[in-house]
Amino acid sequence: MNRDFLKDKKRIVVKIGTSTITHVDTGHLNLLKMEKLTRVLTDIRNQDKEIVLVSSGAIGAGRKALGIKEKPRSLSKKQACAAVGQARLMMIYQKLFAEYNQTIAQILITKRTMINEISRRNAENTFHELLNMGVIPIVNENDTVSTDQIQDENFGDNDTLSATVAQMVQADMLILLSDIDGLYTDDPRNNEKAEFVSCVEKIDDGLCSMAKGADSAFGTGGMTTKIAAAKIANEIGVDMVIANGNDVVNISRILEGKEIGTLFKA
Ligand SMILES: Nc1ncnc2c1ncn2[C@@H]1O[C@H](COP(=O)(O)OP(=O)(O)O)[C@@H](O)[C@H]1O
Ligand SMILES: N[C@@H](CCC(=O)OP(=O)(O)O)C(=O)O
């Protein structure tokens, strides 16, 4: 499918996953990638487009800072890691974006923020003010108070969160950056015959069954939560692309209409 229509997208939500902003082997933050990400996003802002960044990585960053070797299972441990890691994450984003004189803001939300009409409206107003002021809001789930998914392995699922943020800010497009080129017919890490899917025009049960969970030590959700995000986004008319965040310039290429990643056409 020709992707020239993506050139006209003005308000874009970009989500970056833990596996993308951390080094695979150590789990430490990948500063070079974060530095490139801030440069690319500021450059997109310079083209008069608006950006909301949904960044994961708080739990992973906190876990490294606290010297916790195993992936934390208990909710309170994840929350403690997130509390330490979120501050680190923002400190680094602040420093990197400041290099380019780009103002950022932190917005921490929970699923409950979206459900409650008053808090939703407050968040919505804040987003709109910030975007009008040229600020890049950086969003994460407020993991320390988020009790909605206490027993849920999908705690802190930023894929679906980014789709609801896209809905809240009336975005034109959602880009999910991951550690893989996009959707395959099966998880290519476990099935070498898996084939790449370039474009999805209908999300049906067959497509959902292709998506498996995350196999990595730091990522959560895998493709399952990305398909769930695509469903939410497409239903409200928002096009979504899953692309490889190893090269963050992919964000610019997508917005130039290049055939990068898997496009979920609304
Ligand atoms: N059908 C599929 N196509 C591509 N990747 C898949 C699929 N099913 C499962 N995956 C896994 O999903 C992972 C990406 O999800 P995740 O580790 O949660 O990343 P992120 O931190 O970017 O959210 C991939 O590395 C891959 O192993
Ligand atoms: N709020 C969590 C995000 C968890 C999450 O969805 O992670 P990922 O699957 O890597 O996008 C954190 O910052 O660690």
TrEMBL record:
EC number(s) on file: 2.7.2.11
Domain spans labelled Aspartate/glutamate/uridylate kinase: 10-244
GO cellular component: cytosol
Pathway: Amino-acid biosynthesis; L-proline biosynthesis; L-glutamate 5-semialdehyde from L-glutamate: step 1/2
Binding-site list for substrate: 56, 143, 158
Matches recorded under Gene3D superfamilies: Acetylglutamate kinase-like
PROSITE patterns (UniProt xref): GLUTAMATE_5_KINASE (PS00902)
Biological process per Gene Ontology, one example term: L-proline biosynthetic process
Binding site for ATP: 15, 178-179, 220-226
InterPro entries membership: AceGlu_kinase-like_sf (IPR036393), Asp/Glu/Uridylate_kinase (IPR001048), G5K_ProB (IPR041739), Glu/AcGlu_kinase (IPR001057), Glu_5kinase (IPR011529), Glu_5kinase/COase_Synthase (IPR005715), Glutamate_5-kinase_CS (IPR019797)
Superkingdom as given in the UniProt entry: Bacteria
GO MF assignments: ATP binding; glutamate 5-kinase activity
Keyword RNA-binding: no
Catalytic activity: L-glutamate + ATP = L-glutamyl 5-phosphate + ADP
Keywords: Amino-acid biosynthesis, ATP-binding, Cytoplasm, Kinase, Nucleotide-binding, Proline biosynthesis, Transferase
Subcellular location per the Swiss-Prot or TrEMBL entry: Cytoplasm
Keyword Nucleotide-binding: yes
Described function: Catalyzes the transfer of a phosphate group to glutamate to form L-glutamate 5-phosphate.
NCBIfam families recorded: proB
Entry's family note: Belongs to the glutamate 5-kinase family.
Identification of the protein by name: Glutamate 5-kinase
Organism field: Parablautia muri
Name of the gene encoding the protein in the UniProt record: proB
